[in-house]
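User: Please predict the structure of the protein below. I'd like the answer in structure-token form so I can feed it into my own downstream comparison script.

Assistant: Understood. Taking the following sequence of 130 residues as input:
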Amino acid sequence: MHSLAQEKSPKAGLAAKGDTIAHVETIAKSVNYAESVRKCKRKHVSAIGPHGSFAVTGQVAKALLALVEADEQGVTAQECDSSPNRLGAYVHTLRRRRELIIETVREPHDGGWHGRYVLHSPVTILEAEQ
């Protein structure tokens, strides 16, 4: 029978042959996930809607900006700068939490339909930060 040391590749280095690796220093630093997430700046938008001033952040803020910029033409997920697969969820958040009136217009295509979202509530953007 072969010993385990004989089966290891000679290119594996001293550590593979069972030698000590005490001389190896740690190069990587452990980073707390919460700290790294906080370093990423999220989009922040302050606005005035029909029920007063409000603020939204992240992808919801990007969706609000897209709706305001699109005006009466509305916006689809493909046209929006935010995550296209989640635009409906961001619109839902704006409808429920900010009480904005946003119409969904069904636009048919070969595979079914997609929604075009049109903002009907008057919204004024006060400040948009990255």
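That's the full token string. Residues 41-129 form a domain with the Arc Repressor Mutant, subunit A fold (CATH 1.10.10).
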